[in-house]
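user: can you give me the structure for this one chain? tokens are fine.
assistant: on it. calling the predictor now.
[tool input]
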Amino acid sequence: MKSATILVTGGGGFIGRNLVGHFYRLGIIRMIIIDPARELWCERNLASLPRNRVHIHRNEIGDTEVIVKLLEKYMPRHVLHLAAESHVDKSIASPGIFLKTNVEGTHRLLEAVTSYWNNRNRPQNFRFHYCSTDEVYGSVETG
């Protein structure tokens, strides 16, 4: 796994930044982060990452053209999709950004990754991992 290139969406968020830091300490050779860095804390999280193995692209996950170019350029073995709008209070005040990122953005990302998957030059054992929170998936009914 140390020779792997990993693309991480939402790498500037709390979970993403900690995961990227963990991968860096494990010696993962290259990480590509896609995050629009809209929040100040996100900008600070991204600023501390070393640029020799971590490449940051401040793009939306719904920008299919950019995503396809990044996939073709870096040829990651894994895509970890962590990007999501998840602040409940903000979702009530401004639901459009949540639909744009969580639904449309994920759909466009999947289209870009499917195009990459269908490319014969992709790395072997390619994996797409999607992680999120209950704020995106919804709460689980119990009992």
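assistant: here you go. The first helix runs from residue 14 to 26. Strands lie at 5-9, 30-34, 54-57, 78-81, 127-130.
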